[in-house]
Amino acid sequence: MLDGLFFAGVVLYFFAMILQFIGVSFKREALQKYAWWLFLAGFAASTAYLIARGIVAGRVPMSNQFEFAAMFSWGIALMLIILKTRVKADWIVTAAIPMVFLVISYAAFQPRGIKELMPALRSVWFVFHIGTAAFAYASFLLAGASGIRYLYTEKQDKNNPILEDIDYMTYRLIALGLLLLTVTIVSGAIWAEQAWSSFWTWDPKEVWALITWLLYSIFLHLRLNRNWKGRRMAIFAIAAVPIVLFTFIGVNTLIPGLHSYGAVLPELL
């Protein structure tokens, strides 16, 4: 049953992505509406899966690479729904749905076994630290999607007034992501002191989280103090996405460290 719910979400996201692309390419609004309903159905399936897995595991399902990726994709989807329904940012849907699908597809290739938490993870900081990381990464990926949409719209019409809205949304998403990543790093330092008797160990995961934080801090500095906007900021938002993905995937996979067990056992960031 659990696997059925998970893969139902994957399939629904896939068909939502395909229908959205076709609808946009051929300017068929009806197809875009169907795509959105499929996306919502995929979100419902993913939500039900995470709830059911949490009940079976007896904890919040965010303790290993699979669970974090599933929660990461869920966070992107939730934020996309809020952007479309509350902020009316319909323009981001075409670029954002593929990001949800790609992240949940990555999760599908990870071991899905349910394991008990390691002693170091049995902490009040567990949900707070990992949850803010998932939503920070989601904000950064949506900022990248916003950047893609900016470049596409600018290519079609440089005078389109929606460009200013897209640019401002990119800035807001990165500001939110940086705030959440700051909370992630600070809470992780507190948790690390409790688990390993050290606030900062220069573990590869910590280092790359710091690199990601510095990168997006540079974005905000250029935005607020140098008044950089538009095309170059869109390119910046897109170019920063691989750094986020490497911090999430590459470090756990390629670089040994205190967080390396996250690939098969729980992780802290």
Structure at a glance:
This protein has 269 residues and is an all-alpha fold. The chain is built from eight helices and no strands.
How is the topology of this model organized?
Layout: H1 2-25, H2 29-57, H3 65-85, H4 93-108, H5 125-156, H6 162-196, H7 204-225, H8 231-254
Uncertain stretches of 5 or more adjacent residues = 261-269
User: How would you describe the shape?
Assistant: flat
Give the helix tally: 8
**What string gives the helices and strands in order?**
HHHHHHHH
Mean of residue pLDDT values: 91
What count of structural domains?
1
Task: Output the structural class.
Answer: mainly alpha
How much β-strand is present in the residues? under 5%
Radius of gyration: 19 Å
How many DSSP-defined strands?
0
The share of residues in helices is: over 70%
- What is the rounded distance between the termini? 29 Å
- What summary fits the major beta sheet? none
Structural account:
With 269 residues, the protein is mainly α. It has one domain. The protein has helices at residues 2-25, 29-57, 65-85, 93-108, 125-156, 162-196, 204-225, 231-254. Helix 1 packs antiparallel against helix 2 (29-57), helix 3 crosses helix 5 and helix 6 (162-196) packs antiparallel against helix 7. The relative contact order is 0.11.
List descriptors.
single chain; 269 residues; mainly alpha; 8 helices; 75% helix; flat
